[in-house]
Amino acid sequence: MKRIQLVRYGKPETTCECIDVDPLPAPAAGHINVAIRASAINPADLLIFEDRYPGPDALPAFVGIEGAGEVTAIGDNVDEYQVGDRVLSLGRANWSEEVSGECNQFVKLPAELDWTDAAQLKANPPSAYLMLENYVTLKPGDWIIQNAANSAVGRHVIQGCKARGLNSINVVRRAELIPELEALGADVVVVDDENLAATVRSKIGADAAVKLGIDAVAGDAMLRMADTLSNGATVVNYGFLSGDPCQLTPTHTIVRGISLHGFWLVGFFQTANRQQVVDMYSNVAQQFIAEKLHVPVEAEYPLTDIAAALEHANREGRNGKILLRS
What are phi and psi of 223, to 5 degrees? Predict the structure, then answer.
């Protein structure tokens, strides 16, 4: 059986190896075995491999945040699953032909959900959903702003806003992305620069209430985003693509009452009960099936081509997710 392991930190394409391991034994009581059919390469995977994000305690280590597959065997005292069920794996070592775990490490998926969508279900769609839902009370017609808007999370935020009747301002680094995101449902798309606040206000009006900022970059990008926000707004930071600390000035926080919160999906899992997790993924899966959510896939690679897959996932200017198929 083939599995991907992280053997060193560095440029992502130099960090992992595909190795052969023994097949899984029959599952223990309360456990299931799952054949992984597809996995997305998440930005957090790349940051882990660069040693810039919480990851394994020691190397070598099996890795892979995303993964969806079919149940191949069930242990004693398992009532929730049957062989052939499609499931999402909640573990963090999913780049493998097969994985095993306790029943609560998996969530059942609808049979009609495509593998390319199931492969992307675990991290990005619920992150967008929870950031729109949990920090600011938003009603139809309200404005939010986000950077890294062409990322997978950014695309889910755009589609989530559209479904809820919210208006989205979307900050990107390249002008050629504007038509694509507008076609996806973005209300305003602008290129980030030192005039961001003036550009945004020229498009939405000086008095429009921008209540929520969703930040994946930190550093100077957060400062520029904060300048676009209304007094009393909230910034939710979920990434650090710049590698720099989050930045707000005393004027932002003291005078204008702008607050900063951090979001990590792991934190949700640490506090949510089982039914909340199942309900959230059921909701997101149905949105994919109804074509309310969609993220394009740029390429698929077998596990044996892990170096090429990671190099592709780490390229600038991608326009879709990179998947591993087994």
Answer: -60, -45
pLDDT, tens only, 125-153: 999 999 999 999 999 999 999 999 998 89
Residue 96 Cα distances to 21, 49, 72, 100, 324, angstroms: 10, 17, 14, 10, 9
Q: Which helix (H) or strand (E) holds 125?
A: helix 124-134
Give the CATH architecture of domain 2-120+295-325.
Alpha-Beta Complex (3.90)
Q: How far apart are the first and last CA of the chain?
A: 10
Domain spanning 125-265, CATH architecture = 3-Layer(aba) Sandwich (3.40)
- pTM for the model stands at 0.84
Do residues 263 and 127 touch, judged by C-beta distance below 8 A?
yes
Q: How many residues are recorded in the chain?
A: 326
- Phi/psi at 207 (nearest 5 deg)? -100, 0
Q: Which two tokens stand for residue 24?
A: 């899984």
Q: Which part of the chain has CATH 3.40.50.720? A: 125-265
